[in-house]
Amino acid sequence: MNKPQTDLGTGTRAVTRELCEWIVGVQGSDIPAEVRREGLRTFVNWMGCAVGGARHETVDRALTAIAPFAGASTSTVIGRPERLDALHAALVNGISSHVLDYDDTHLKTIIHPAGPVASALLALAETRTVSGEDFLTALILGVEIECRIGNAVYPHHYDRGWHITGTTGVFGAAAAVGKVLGLDPLRLSWAMGLAATQSSGLREMFGTMTKSFHPGRAAQNGLFSALLAEAGYDSSVRAIEAPRGFAHVMSDKQDYEEILGDLGTRWEAALNSYKPFACGIVIHPTIDGCQQIRAEIGDRVNDIRSVELSTHPLVLELTGKKTPRTGLEGKFSVYHSAATALLRGDGAPTAFTDEVVNLPEIVALRDRVTATANPACHEASVDIRITFNDGTTLEKHVERAIGSREVPLTDAQINTKFSVQSALVIGEEQTAALLARSWEAEGLADIGEVARASIPA
């Protein structure tokens, strides 16, 4: 790396400027093959989730509100016949890709990286032709930037109540779009400043439609930030590191080495993971363990007297809804998730509908689930104790769940996940074609082909 710069004679390292200069200078050939492969897996997983969530009532209501105010219909609403202007398409596709809580996760920060970045890029790509190669490069850089910024402020930022996918996703979207637009370092710094001032998203919204609004708004705001900067709309060039900038205002921790250290050699984008279950990531060990128990005990699942969970305190903080009433609330209930995994073997979107959350047999078992916070338990682990009506017990420890970095989803499992949710929306034949096209993305002359391939036949 070049000698660190200082800004405005203050002696403060010019974090935003250095980062933007690196983004501008990176070529696709500079990104290692294994990182590009993970970027492609990220895109394929995102596309499946965007189609899978396309008919959710959250998306319906967003479109109802937006339609009267939308501009020229340039960009595809993934998995639907509607088309919107690029800014509103980015918003809606960000919502649909996250609404099932089935999308990718950078486990170090709990950021869901693809939603803000891919939604912004693909919407723009239908207004000016972008090759698959350039798209993938920009997607990887956007994911890299949001995760590095997240590393710099996590966990303090998250603990304050900020939804880090929304607050850092806007930087990733701005950086990725700025890369495709060919912004110079100054204009890209302006884009990052415009993104910083629109950084938002509150954890209070978990379990409601507004949670998925966060990555959607981050995509829209990041795209808008880059377009404004392209037109010469300026901002502070110190948006990340300034005393009243993002890092100081929104966190007690500012570790700028996490942003600038080992650029081009340490790739956060290579650490992305993909959910096997459509709910909060901290519930996954419980679902994994309960599914294993169900496979072991068979019909004895109907003789369970009680279920005891010992989990990290964060699990109960994030997913401690004891009596969820809606499918969205169920995604943040470790109690509901344990009950559905035991009784139905389900952790897919079908486990988190309004109907399933209120099924009498699910409610009855859910009421017999207790959870205890154990600070000694890793947040990615769980201990489960089942007591049967005859007094016998069964115990299960899950060290790391399927979908973790230690037990990652294979390409085949990503394909199955894609196909199952997409087929419910656009049918099996079109899903197969869309899946194949998504894997071919890097070689396409026009990445917009993938978006248009998702439009229901």
Automatic annotation (TrEMBL):
<dbReference type="InterPro" id="IPR045336">
    <property type="entry name" value="MmgE_PrpD_N"/>
</dbReference>
<comment type="similarity">
    <text>Belongs to the PrpD family.</text>
</comment>
<dbReference type="Pfam" id="PF03972">
    <property type="entry name" value="MmgE_PrpD_N"/>
</dbReference>
<protein>
    <submittedName>
        <fullName>MmgE/PrpD family protein</fullName>
    </submittedName>
</protein>
<dbReference type="Pfam" id="PF19305">
    <property type="entry name" value="MmgE_PrpD_C"/>
</dbReference>
<feature type="domain" description="MmgE/PrpD N-terminal">
    <location>
        <begin position="17"/>
        <end position="257"/>
    </location>
</feature>
<dbReference type="InterPro" id="IPR036148">
    <property type="entry name" value="MmgE/PrpD_sf"/>
</dbReference>
<dbReference type="InterPro" id="IPR045337">
    <property type="entry name" value="MmgE_PrpD_C"/>
</dbReference>
<dbReference type="GO" id="GO:0016829">
    <property type="term" value="F:lyase activity"/>
</dbReference>
<dbReference type="InterPro" id="IPR042188">
    <property type="entry name" value="MmgE/PrpD_sf_2"/>
</dbReference>
<dbReference type="InterPro" id="IPR005656">
    <property type="entry name" value="MmgE_PrpD"/>
</dbReference>
<dbReference type="InterPro" id="IPR042183">
    <property type="entry name" value="MmgE/PrpD_sf_1"/>
</dbReference>
<feature type="domain" description="MmgE/PrpD C-terminal">
    <location>
        <begin position="277"/>
        <end position="440"/>
    </location>
</feature>
